[in-house]
Amino acid sequence: MKLPHVDIVKYRNWWIGISLAITVPGFIGIMFCIAEFHAPLKPGIDFTGGSIIQYEFAPSAQLDQVRDVVDKTIPGSQVQEAQISGKRVMVIRTKALADEKQDEKLKKQLDKGLHELVKEPVLSVDKVSGIVGPELLQSGLLALFITFTAMVLYIKFCFQFDFAICAIIALFHDVLVLCGIFAIMGLVRGTEVDSLFISAVLTVIGFSVHDTIVVFDRIRENSKYEGSKGIDKDGNEYRKTFGHIANDSVNQTLARSLYTSLTVIITLCALYFLGGVTTREFVLAMLIGIFSGTYSSIFNASCLLVWWREFRKKRKTAKPAVA
Q1: Which listed site, 274, 277, 295, 319, has its alpha carbon 20 to 30 Å from 103?
Q2: d(Cα 256, Cα 266) in Å, to the nearest integer?
Q3: Hey, is 122 helix, strand or coil?
């Protein structure tokens, strides 16, 4: 199916405005998270340390009853209801305790308090120490830094430096959109991020830069036609500028970008609605990232490159006039 030709570069102020309308509230949410949680996002047990305990409960058990017992035993814990393998399960998240003896003591008190509500014994107990959590966070941030640095060098080597800068700005946009939305969710819903979230961010970065490179490669191939004659829809001749080249290149790759992203989105939607509760936040992060990455590759990266080339051209023409 052939898509209609869209003058993307002409309305670049609108595309940048839409991005700002999404990223600014997210950035404010990140600032609030830093003030409240001392981190850009609400950290989960993977980063802070703690335990995740899963119980299967009787059909008559109410979520409020479970929360009352848990709050009396281990204050500050979170309780969520989920369906795992057709079983009604309560997932209890507790923060890291001072020592293992205290942890075991409170665990026994929790088992005793939930005895009447529990249908089956404990399904699973996962623990993360308070030492491993910060190490995971440092490793995740280091992986992000290395990824961004390697991509700048790669794009600079394959294209030009301004291509690399525009691609990295588009990547920062994608990461900021994803982190901003999860920061707001952390403030409103208490959504926490774990090591899977870092994996989602890295995957989104890879997907987004892959799409951006496809667009930039077409721009580089078509740049040889800059200055040649073109005919508009009214039959008038014009000289092709870099803006025309970029606009034509984006339209030539538009169908491929949309079809690829749509295929991934359909798969992720199936995983989100039909998959397990343990991977739902990861899939949601992927969905947000794919939407943002597709948008930035089509509407932001190319428009930023055109803006930079036009700005540099104006500066070159202005210097002889000043002299």
Answers
A1: 277
A2: 16
A3: strand
Query: In the chain, which residues fall in CATH 1.20.1640.10?
Result: 12-39+133-315
Domain at 50-128, CATH from 3.40.50.880, 3.30.2310.20, 3.30.70.3220, 3.30.70.1130? 3.30.70.3220
The three-class DSSP label of residue 161 is helix
What is the structure's pLDDT at 320?
Answer: 60
User: Region 251-277: what's the mean pLDDT?
Assistant: 88
Name the pTM for this structure.
Answer: 0.80
pLDDT band at 29 (very low <50, low <70, confident <90, very high): very high
End-to-end CA distance of the chain: 53
**What ranges in the chain are assigned the alpha helix state H?**
12-37, 45-48, 63-73, 100-113, 132-158, 161-188, 195-222, 242-274, 280-295, 301-322
- Kindly state the tokens that stand for 290: 């794919």
CATH code, residues 12-39+133-315: 1.20.1640.10
Domain limits, CATH 3.30.70.3220, in the chain: 50-128
Reading the block at residue 170, the tokens are 């588009």
Residues ≥6 apart with Cβ < 8 Å to 313: none
Q: Is 194 helix (H, G, I), strand (E, B) or coil?
A: coil
Number of Cβ atoms within 10 Å of the Cβ of 272: 16
d(CA 70, CA 113): 8
Residue 158: how many other CB atoms lie within 10 Å: 13
